[in-house]
Amino acid sequence: MRKAWAFRFNSFFPVLAFVAAMSWAAASGAQPASTEPVPPLNVLDGKRFVGELVAIGESSGPPDDFVFADGKFHSRECLKWGFAPGPYWVRLENGRLHFMARLTSDENGVMTYQGTVDGSKIDARIEWVKPRWYWTMEKNFRFRGTRGEAADRSGN
Questions:
Q1: Long-range contacts from 27-34, C-beta under 8 angstroms, 24+ separation
Q2: DSSP string covering 109-133
Q3: What pLDDT, in 10s, does the model give residues 85-117?
Q4: Do residues 117 and 100 touch, judged by C-beta distance below 8 A?
Q5: pTM of the prediction?
Q6: CA distance 103 to 74
Q7: Which residues, including other chains, have CB under 8 Å from residue 101's CB and lie 6 or more apart?
Q8: Cβ atoms within 10 Å, residue 35
Q9: Among 51, 39, 45, 132, which Cα is nearest to 87's?
């Protein structure tokens, strides 16, 4: 008889522990990770940032524009290499707008952009990956810029 009771208690204990933990979290007033409003997905549309695209380890690079238009993002410098405009995603964290975009080129691989927009300033890191049959080329860049003239509907 005693073994049956021990078996029931042992199988019930994980459920009891879970309920107790959830009750404690609710009683302690635990808040969700972020209570900041969710920005509209196109919040950056019509904005252009002017700066310099610098390879990590280098001291300078070519001038570039980051353009957000019609729910898509592009880098003027990367358009030259066949990277077509692509969708971008945003989230708000600590009052700063974070964005991410991934642009692809049939011949030159994938460029992934991750950065923050804080007022009129932008700071981004870019990873370029180009697979080849004998090795994969990976190169990292940084872009820092400021708001330029507004982009027109075509992103120019």
A1: 34/92, 34/93
A2: EEEEEEEEEETTEEEEEEEEEEE-S
A3: 999 999 988 888 999 999 999 999 999 999 999
A4: no
A5: 0.71
A6: 8
A7: 73, 86, 87, 88, 89, 112, 113
A8: 6
A9: 45
